[in-house]
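**Backbone geometry record:**
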Amino acid sequence: MRIKQVRVTPIAFRDAPLLNASGIHEPYALRSIIEVESDNGYIGLGESYGDAPVLSVLQAMQESLVGLDPFDLNGLRARVVKTVAALKPGTAGAELAPGSHPSKQVANAYSAFEVAFLDLQARSLGMPLVDLLGGAVRDRVPFSAYLFLKYAEHVGSPYKPDRWGEGISPEQMVAQARTMIEENGFKSIKLKAGTLLGPEHEVACIKALRQAFPEAPLRIDPNGNWSVETSLRMAELLGDDLEYYEDPCPGLEGMAEVHKRTGIPLATNMVVTDFDEFRRSVALGSVQIVLADHHYWGGLRDTQILARMCDTFGLGVSMHSNSHLGISLMAMTHVAAAVPNLSYACDTHYPWQEPDEEVIKGGKLPIVDGCVALTRTPGLGVELDYDQLAKLNDQYLTCGIRSRNDVTQMQKYDPSWKALKPRF
C-alpha cells in the first residue's frame, strides 16, 4: 500500500464572540482538513490549524508524501523536518493557539499527517484507530463543559447572533452552563478567565457556578493573564471551589510560586508544551496536571509518551482544546481512550460549533452523559461530507481571515486595547 494523493483543504466556520486573555474570538475559526489517499482506495483523515503559517507547511508537504508507505511514520517525520527546513521561518500565530507558533511547525505538521496516516492504517486493517494505540482502556471518554464570557454578537454583525446570547453576568454564566449540561450531560465545568472583565468578576462567576452546581468539579483558566500576586489573591477567594487552577500566571517560575504558596493543583497547556518544558517544570514543581494536545505535541503516539511521562512523575493528565470540528474530536477521543492515567475530563470547544457547519457525514457527533463514545468502525470512525467541505472552503475563501488574531479583533470594539501579559 502506497500513498497516491494528499489533499489539504482550508476551511472556515462561524465562531462565537468569546472573550479571552488576548481579546475576543474573530467571527470565523480556521482549520485545515487533510486527506491521505492510498493506491488501494482507502482515505485517512486529519484536522489541524488553518492559520497561514501552518497551512503553508501542510500544503508544501503534499507532493513529498506521494509514494510513501502509510505505515512509515519515520519517513513521514523525515519529510516534515526537510520541508520545514526549506521554508522561510513563519510568523508567530495566536498565543492561545500554541500549535500555530513557528517553534511548533514540525510537531504540528507531523501531527496533522500522523493522524491521517494512522486513520488510513486502521481503515486498511479493518480496526478502530484506538487498537493501533494499544487498545481502549475505556470506551467512553469524558469531556467538560467549557464556558466563556461572551458578547451577544460580533461587532459589525457579519451574521445573525448565535443561540447562546450574552454571557457576562454570573447569572448568565450559570444559564450558559445549565444549557450546556442539559444538552451534553457534562459532569465538570471550566470557565475561561483572564478577560477584560477582571479577576473579581470571574471569581464571582465561579462562586455562582458552585452554588448552582454544588457537586460539579470546577476549573478556571486565566491563560496566564494574572500576576502571581493576583493569582494568590484570587486563590484565597476561591478557597476549596476548584478541582484545579489552570495557567493563572505566566511562566514556569510563576506557576511554581503559586503552587508552593497555595497547594492548589495547577494545570497547564501554556508553560508545558514540549518535553524540554516538561523537564524544567518537574524540576521546579510548576504544574501538577498537563493538558495534552496532539495537534502540537507531535501526534497521537507522542501524546501517549507524554501521558507515560506524567505517570512516571506522578502528574495528572487531561486534554486541551481549541476551536475544532469532529475529526479532531474523534482523534482526541481515540488517544484519550488509550491513556490509562487520564485523570480529568478533557476540554472541548465542540458545543460552540454550529450544527450546520460540521464537515463529517451525519452532522455533529453526540456527547452523551458528558462523554464521546468509541465504536468498532474502522479508523477514526467518521467520513467526510464533501458538500460540507466545499461549503466551508468557500467560506474560508470569502471570510478574509488568514491568521487568528484576537487582539486586533478586540481593537474593533476598543481601539486602545493592547496585548498585555499579565494584564491584572
In short: The chain has two domains: 3-126, 131-373.
